[in-house]
Amino acid sequence: EVQLVQSGAEVKKPGQSLKISCKSSGYTFGTYWIGWVRQMPGKGLEWMGIIYPDDSDTRYSPSFQGQVTISADKSITTAYLYWSSLKASDTAMYYCARHTIRADAFDIWGQGTVVTVSS
Amino acid sequence: DIQMTQSPSSLSASVGDRVTISCRASQSISTYLNWYQQKPGRAPKLLLYAASSLQSGVPSRFSGSGSGTDFTLTISSLQSEDFATYYCQQSYRTSTWTFGQGTKVEIK
Predict the structure, then answer these.
(1) Among A40, A77, A78, B49, fewest CB within 10 Å belongs to which?
(2) Residue A69 in 3-state DSSP?
(3) Distance between CA atoms of A112 and A77, rounded to whole angstroms?
(4) Which residue has the higher pLDDT, B30 or B93?
């Protein structure tokens, strides 16, 4: 079964760093782009960025460029989303999703990771 | 950036109703348009891609149409499990997939 399993909920203070993960299984990890999507409480979906694990080619939405870092480790078929200094406004649900070229769409989604940033 | 605008933002409907949701792009995107369904507390699910192609496993009561700037998602006969929020997403600009603001379908 193709699936993406994300790391658990996080509670952090402003200024702290955080890396959340997205573990893939059931397909060839390196040959599909993996994207990250933010959903703030009660709001819609925002595409943050995407990585091609085979060569680590990474693209960011202008809104998130410089705010987060996306990476991947092919050896353990895992993608990551990293903040060096969290803000309260980073409080949200974060989803990873697999992009399929066949549909040019995100066909498999992780279950989401809730990040709460509060002093 | 390509902006995606959905209408309405929410609607109330009954089981068995025909429901139509619109999505407009700020510039022509050909048929590079996808639709997702999100239920409360769940991850989004891909319903349709390339404006009108049904994703595997999605019921045939869902259909999509449109090209250029105007697109439509239609649910031919609303079922109880279809109450959810629906998002359109453009894939015209490589590596910049933007979503519409969502349309919430509620029970009347």
Answers:
(1) A40
(2) strand
(3) 17
(4) B30
- d(CA B93, CA A17) in angstroms, rounded, equals 31
Pick from A37, A44, A95: CB nearest B102:
A44
Report d(CA A71, CA B103) in Å as an integer.
32
3-state secondary structure of A50: strand
If you ran DSSP here, which 8-state letter would residue A39 be given? E
Instruction: State how far the Cα of A114 lies from the Cα of B3, in Å rounded to an integer.
Output: 27
DSSP code string of A20-67: EEEEEESS-GGGSEEEEEEE-TT--EEEEEEEETTTTEEEE-TTTTTT
Q: Is the pLDDT of residue A65 over 90?
A: yes
A44 vs B34: CB contact, 8 Å cut-off? Answer: no
pLDDT at B3 over 80: yes
> Does pLDDT of B1 surpass 90?
no
- What is the spatial distance between Cα A7 and Cα B46, in angstroms, rounded to a whole number? 22
Computed over its alpha carbons, how large is the radius of gyration of chain B?
13
- Cβ distance B38 to A61 less than 8 Å, yes or no, reads no
Q: Count Cα neighbours of B16 within 13 Å in the Cβ-side half-sphere.
A: 0
A64: contact with B, CB 8 A cutoff: no
The answer to whether B61 contacts chain A (CB < 8 Å) is no
Using CB atoms, pick whichever of B32, B91, B101 lies closest to residue A44. Answer: B101
Select from B1, B44, B49 the Cβ nearest to the Cβ of A45. Answer: B44
